[in-house]
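Service request form, structural biology core

Requester: graduate student, group of Dr. S.
Request type: structure prediction, single chain
Budget code: on file
Notes: please return the result as structure tokens.

Sequence provided:
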Amino acid sequence: MLARRSLSEGEVAFRLMRKGHPESEVLPVLARLRDLRLLDDAALCRQLVRSYREGRMYGPAKIAWKLASRRFPRDLVEESLREDSSPERVADAAAQALRKKYRGGIPTGREAAAKAYRFLAGRGFPPDVCRKAVGRRAAYLSEGDD
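Core staff response, request fulfilled:
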């Protein structure tokens, strides 16, 4: 299982139990994998937070959802997001996502701004960050029109 990609302890436990191994057998296996340093939830969770934010340009809500789907403990997800997702980084990620989506710039008009807002919201950015990013991008574009 671990040869293809890094997995969380929760994913390994789920897969083993799905294959019919009882929990009494799974717990020692997880402990052994931790001892061999083949499982490190904290490091993997931090790495995935950075990867989702920088590579896929996701906001905190979508990152938390993705990590929960990979069976990381909720407190670890919250801690990793707190450590790595400062308000400035979240705002920068939203601006980068807009730049990538609208390479020529956000089309003018209220509907285009609403579409850009929905795009960011769908990527897990908070409402205030979406408003600021769309507003800043629109202001930047209108300044360049002079």
